[in-house]
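User: Please predict the structure of the protein below. I'd like the answer in structure-token form so I can feed it into my own downstream comparison script.

Assistant: Understood. Taking the following sequence of 96 residues as input:
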Amino acid sequence: MRRSNTQQLSEVLREYIREMRFDRKLKEVDVVQSWQELLGKTISRYTRNIYFSKGILFVEISSPVVKNELIMIREEIRSRLNKQAGEEIVTKIVFK
């Protein structure tokens, strides 16, 4: 006998993610993964480590020259990452 309250698996998973409050963390992971796509392979070669902590994106850069260039366009990068995420995920970017 078939139940009348059937749901699609995708709807159930979305609801579970929303209830468990995983959606913000998943967007943070998407932002980190989209770093190469937004900044290109050249910049990604100088990127050692990227991680989030309390809305702040920390990026370790191996080249001082590239680091200075990124500092100059920090706000543009932040707005592009937030646009990619669809909401204000990145509040600040710190280059190390």
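That's the full token string. Strands lie at 47-53, 56-61, 92-95.
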